[in-house]
Write a structure and sequence with these properties.
The protein is of the alpha/beta class. Helices cover 35% and strands 16% of the residues.
């Protein structure tokens, strides 16, 4: 358990104005990022598209603060404004004083705010000290959190932190001189550090000398950050929970160190400038970087929605999102007849990999087209191998009470699913009656020949009444 979990705390995150620096390669706040690709990643090559982030209106700021703290017992309030608390282009003096007064009024014992080193001046801190003294005796202890990230000047330059160790130490001394606390944020698994464990150990030991407390955060890449580009290019990968826990295990009993694995991890979000429709067949459209990053997220960070107990693998469809296709509309119409429908987790299989139903509207799952009429035996083989591997990783990471499928037994997706389940020794229950399928197959439209062909018609074999009735019957018998 981290030290923070032992007492009541609240975290407020606001975007008010733009960070005065805004160039850190891992940061997503207050900027759009259009990366120019090359053979090697170089943050200095990137074109930064500025995003205007206005400072919050004072009335809005007050409403947000009151909504967060009123009626709640809070010992520690962490206030993060996506930049620097001491930058009055982000947090005005009136905002600051209101926050202080609410802390005093509600009995908050400690207020932690974030700030870049260059905004820390003795004059500014003395001004804050005077403001707090004017409120009375119940004012909170004020602690400044500085995002050092790594105790290495060479790496700080490469990640475009805009700060040196000397500047960090200067800020720390000024903060201590005025009687405030110092908290240092470190980022585990940054690029360019070489040996991740050795780098973190060096950074922790350094920071302990200059801080009242340390927070170690697992590095993760967000859409508008250059680090996301590195992930897409395979030049960097985030740590999953098992890897992160092994890395920070030695620090868990240190009361001065708080550890955070997934506080800000979210599903893969692509910025608009990277979004494009992915149309074609072949390895390029199977192992596309966009698909690879999503599949890595799904097998290493994703958690099955609460209440979903059974996996039902379904085919993709030409129409996107899948649920708008005739095939999926009919499947869903029949599935919802089941009392156990809320327990079923629907997962599509296609060239992007495995696609849980809740992500079908997300890019790129609603923005691709696999042109099956261009498939060759070699392409089919590559598809089966890659898809089998993705399914295997997904099912190895996520445990279901039972695994079902409703797919054509002759499809490459079903073959990949079946092979993956066999390798994992998972029983796969097919909801397709092969006898019925064989009888109906002769009436199927046939192979798609071109983009103009009606692929909705081609998919219709799966919405034959006998097929759908069998789907419901198999599920009803096996679901508890």
């Amino acid at each position: 358990m981290s030290a923070d979990a032992k007492h009541s705390e609240k975290v407020i995150i606001l975007e008010s104005g733009k960070c005065s620096w805004g160039k850190c390669i891992f940061c997503n706040f207050g900027k759009n990022h259009a990366a120019k690709r090359g053979k090697l990643f170089n943050p200095m090559r990137n074109e930064m598209i500025e995003k205007k982030v206005p400072m919050l209106d004072l009335s809005v700021f007050k409403e947000r603060i009151e909504r967060a703290v009123n009626g709640t017992k809070i010992d520690t309030l962490k206030f993060f404004n996506s930049g620097s608390f001491l930058d009055e282009a982000q947090i005005s003096a009136k905002m600051r004083r209101f926050l202080f007064s609410k802390c005093e009024e509600t009995g908050i014992k400690e207020l932690i705010v974030e700030c870049r080193a260059e905004h820390v001046t003795e004059m500014k801190l003395n001004e804050l000290k005077h403001e707090l003294e004017e409120l009375g005796k119940n004012t909170p202890k004020l602690t400044f959190a500085i995002g050092l990230e790594v105790a290495d000047d060479a790496v700080l330059k490469k990640i475009q932190k805009g700060m040196t160790l000397a500047q960090y130490e200067r800020a720390e001394k000024v903060i201590r001189k005025t009687g405030f606390g110092v908290r240092t944020y470190l980022m585990a698994n940054l690029p360019f550090v070489g040996n991740v464990a050795e780098s973190l150990d060096k950074s922790v030991n350094y920071s302990l000398k200059h801080s009242d407390s340390i927070a170690i955060i697992n590095a993760f890449a967000y859409g508008y950050s250059p680090l996301f580009e590195m992930w897409l290019e395979g030049l960097w990968h985030p740590l999953n929970k098992k890897e992160f826990d092994a890395l920070v295990k030695k620090y868990k009993n240190n009361k001065k160190i708080n550890i955070y694995f997934d506080d800000y991890i979210t599903y893969t979000k692509f910025p608009e400038n990277l979004q494009k429709k992915l149309v074609g067949v072949g390895n390029e459209y199977i192992m596309h970087p966009y698909f690879n990053v999503w599949q890595e997220y799904l097998s290493r960070f994703y958690e099955i929605p609460e209440g979903k107990k059974y996996a039902l693998f379904l085919p993709c469809s030409f129409r996107k999102p899948y649920s708008q296709s005739k095939t999926h509309r009919e499947i869903l119409r029949h599935l919802t007849k089941l009392r156990q429908y809320p327990l079923i987790h629907q997962i599509m299989i296609s060239n992007p990999g495995v696609i849980p139903r809740e992500f079908e509207n997300k890019y790129p799952f609603a923005h691709y087209d696999w042109q099956e009429w261009l498939e060759t035996p070699q392409i089919k083989k590559e598809y089966i191998e890659a898809t089998q591997n993705r399914i295997k990783k997904y099912l190895a990471a996520h445990k279901y009470a039972a695994v079902f499928s409703y797919m054509k037994p002759t499809s490459e997706s079903f073959i990949a699913l079946k092979d993956a389940c066999e390798k994992l020794k998972i029983k796969l229950i097919s909801c397709v009656d092969e006898k019925i399928f064989t009888e109906l197959k002769n009436t199927e439209t046939g192979l798609i020949k071109s983009a103009e062909d009606d692929r909705e018609t081609y998919e219709n074999l799966l919405i034959n009444r006998k097929m759908l009735d069998n789907l419901v019957e198999v599920l009803r018998k096996n679901l508890k």
